Amino acid sequence: MSTSAKDRNFDDIAGKFSQNIYGTTKGRIRETIIWQDLEHILSTYPKGKSLTILDAGGGQGQIACRLAALGHDVTLCDISANMLDIAKQNAVQSGVQLHYIHSSIQDIAQHLPEKVDLVIFHAVLEWVSDPQLVLSTLYQCLHDSGTLSLMFYNYHGLFFKTVTLGNFGYADAGMTKRKKKTLSPDYPRKLEDVQQWLAELPMTIVGKTGIRVFHDYMTNKTKQQEAFEELLKLEQQYCRQEPYLSLARYIHVIAKK
């Protein structure tokens, strides 16, 4: 599998994801907001139409399973064999069938039997060293008029959080990671760069959403759980509005080919 040595493979910490990401208040907010956007994407297609969907870097398959349960034909690709094993277990527990491809994103086109209606690419762009190559590859996987659901770790949100925490040295150093093999992304992305890369393919952005526009900035962390429903309501209310959108921890972009 051709992938850059700088790209991250999560075989070594696959088990941490359920505990550190999916099973937390931040994970619940992320899942809720993303699913609202995905429901909007699905609503733009004829009702009852079964879409062909590629979940690229789909990890443990939470979203892939939900989409398959709606009757869509879903292929999950991941470079981590351990992640794919967990995804297969989740699919069995969910009572759905998925197609699986063990491959890097860079090589995915040669394993995909045909182009797809929708590509999902969530929380992966910040782990690859050549984002434009990866986006170009995914572009080639899409039918004409196909849709890309792209979520990435937001540089500006990270910078804002870093300064508010008083980590001035880290900010001055360009927020270069000191420790490798952690769950903190290697290459936070700037929205303006992502927009430029998509425009060059060319793709047209039709929607933008901030994921966790308030949660990660709360000084009273106990409120994240104690007042979760109130927090979630505010997240849903302001996640597509500026200036909150641009300071979110993640940004979800919907683009059309």
UniProtKB/TrEMBL annotation:
EC? 2.1.1.-
Amino-acid positions noted as binding S-adenosyl-L-methionine in the UniProt annotation, renumbered to this chain: R30, G57, G58, D78, H122
One Pfam entry for this protein is Methyltransf_11
Q: Function of this protein?
A: Catalyzes the methylation of 5-carboxymethoxyuridine (cmo5U) to form 5-methoxycarbonylmethoxyuridine (mcmo5U) at position 34 in tRNAs.
Which NCBIfam families does this chain map to? PRK11036.1
One Gene Ontology term from the biological process aspect of the record: tRNA modification
Q: What class of enzyme is it?
A: transferase
Keywords, comma-separated and alphabetical: Methyltransferase, S-adenosyl-L-methionine, Transferase, tRNA processing
Record flagged with keyword S-adenosyl-L-methionine: yes
Q: Which residues form the Methyltransferase type domain?
A: 54-149
Q: Which family does it belong to?
A: Belongs to the class I-like SAM-binding methyltransferase superfamily. CmoM family.
- Molecular functions (GO terms): S-adenosylmethionine-dependent methyltransferase activity; tRNA (5-carboxymethoxyuridine(34)-5-O)-methyltransferase activity
What species is given as this protein's source? Answer: Zophobihabitans entericus
Q: What is the lineage of its organism?
A: Bacteria, Pseudomonadati, Pseudomonadota, Gammaproteobacteria, Orbales
Reaction(s) catalyzed by this protein?
5-carboxymethoxyuridine(34) in tRNA + S-adenosyl-L-methionine = 5-methoxycarbonylmethoxyuridine(34) in tRNA + S-adenosyl-L-homocysteine
State what protein this is by name.
Answer: tRNA 5-carboxymethoxyuridine methyltransferase
